[in-house]
């Protein structure tokens, strides 16, 4: 029996019905599925039935050896490829072709991996299990107190669906917190190349979540631009960052960006 390594966030999913629900949440007819952290290969086994091409990235070399042994024939038949590496350091390899991401993500890197997949145009969508608290942040809607830059960065790519909760008893060893499975089908690309600038803009907007948008964005654009934007949409000048929806963030970003461009061309 393998000992789970805390440093790699190893909580193995043992509940068969949850495994089935995750598999059912994955769209059909995918050409290439990337699984991060296959662990003991329980989800991997089911993924092989779904797509002709599965690629896994597992950081733990002990698990990697077990997986090579377990899936020797699938590897030989080229239905499955397993790489022993840190997924975050292997992104060029992950993104070499279009893919759909599936994972029971280790908590310590879950947010980073989701953000990486969201900004990667080769990633067509994802079904991932993460800490429920993080799932709520990604799936929050404008007006929710949880609504933050994470939900907006996801929202500009597609709808975030919080599919179901997963109790701690579904794992071995059991984690301390409840998990949840989210799905994002990336059917929008509203930011494209400007993502880095948009992230900078969002960082300013949410600088002090309790302060007003007007105050937070004062370092990014002029006060008069924000004021006239809020008035145009009948929003009070006291609007807080979590109260503006994704569509309005995009509009405001475009106006602020134009203002910056005009300013730099007159300098
Ligand atoms: N998929 C398995 C399951 O559902 O039972 C294991 C999930 S466990 C929560 C997370 C897995 O990710 C572990 O196998 C761990 O070794 C692996 N892992 C952790 N950090 C990783 C990283 N940076 N890159 C790739 N795999 C990683």
TrEMBL record:
SUPFAM superfamilies for this protein: S-adenosyl-L-methionine-dependent methyltransferases (SSF53335)
InterPro entries: KsgA/Erm, rRNA_Ade_diMease-like_C, rRNA_Ade_Mease_Trfase_CS, rRNA_Ade_methylase_Trfase_N, rRNA_adenine_dimethylase, SAM-dependent_MTases_sf
Compartments where located: Cytoplasm
Catalytic reaction list: adenosine(1518)/adenosine(1519) in 16S rRNA + 4 S-adenosyl-L-methionine = N(6)-dimethyladenosine(1518)/N(6)-dimethyladenosine(1519) in 16S rRNA + 4 S-adenosyl-L-homocysteine + 4 H(+)
Chain's role: Specifically dimethylates two adjacent adenosines (A1518 and A1519) in the loop of a conserved hairpin near the 3'-end of 16S rRNA in the 30S particle. May play a critical role in biogenesis of 30S subunits.
Binding site for S-adenosyl-L-methionine: 11, 13, 37, 58, 86, 104
Similarity remark: Belongs to the class I-like SAM-binding methyltransferase superfamily. rRNA adenine N(6)-methyltransferase family. RsmA subfamily.
Record-linked Gene3D superfamilies: Ribosomal RNA adenine dimethylase-like, domain 2, Vaccinia Virus protein VP39
Name this protein carries in UniProt: Ribosomal RNA small subunit methyltransferase A
Protein's UniProt keywords contain Chaperone: no
EC number(s) given by UniProt: 2.1.1.182
Lineage: Bacteria, Pseudomonadati, Campylobacterota, Epsilonproteobacteria, Campylobacterales
Enzyme class: transferase
Organism name: Campylobacter vicugnae
């Amino acid at each position: 029996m393998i000992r789970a390594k805390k440093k790699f966030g190893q909580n193995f999913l043992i509940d068969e019905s949850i495994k089935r629900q995750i598999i059912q949440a994955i769209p059909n007819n995918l050409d290439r599925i990337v699984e991060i952290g296959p662990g003991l290969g329980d989800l991997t086994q089911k993924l092989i039935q779904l797509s002709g091409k599965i690629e896994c990235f597992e950081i733990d070399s002990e698990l990697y050896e077990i997986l090579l042994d377990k899936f020797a024939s699938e590897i030989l038949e080229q239905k499955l490829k397993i790489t022993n590496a840190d997924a975050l350091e292997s992104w060029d390899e992950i993104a070499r072709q279009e893919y759909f991401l599936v994972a029971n993500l280790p908590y310590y890197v879950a947010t980073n991996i989701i953000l990486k997949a969201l900004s990667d145009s080769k990633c067509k969508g994802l079904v991932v299990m993460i800490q429920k608290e993080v799932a709520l942040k990604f799936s929050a809607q404008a007006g929710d107190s949880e609504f933050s830059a994470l939900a907006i960065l996801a929202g500009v790519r597609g709808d975030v669906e919080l599919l179901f909760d997963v109790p701690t008893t579904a794992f071995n060893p059991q984690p301390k917190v409840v998990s949840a499975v989210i799905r994002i089908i990336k059917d929008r690309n509203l930011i494209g190349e400007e993502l880095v600038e948009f992230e900078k803009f969002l960082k300013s907007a949410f600088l002090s979540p309790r302060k007003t948008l007007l105050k937070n964005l004062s370092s990014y654009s002029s006060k008069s631009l924000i004021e006239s934007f809020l008035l145009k949409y009948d929003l009070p000048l006291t609007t807080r960052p979590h109260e503006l929806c994704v569509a309005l963030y995009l509009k405001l970003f475009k106006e602020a960006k134009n203002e910056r461009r005009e300013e730099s061309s007159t300098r």
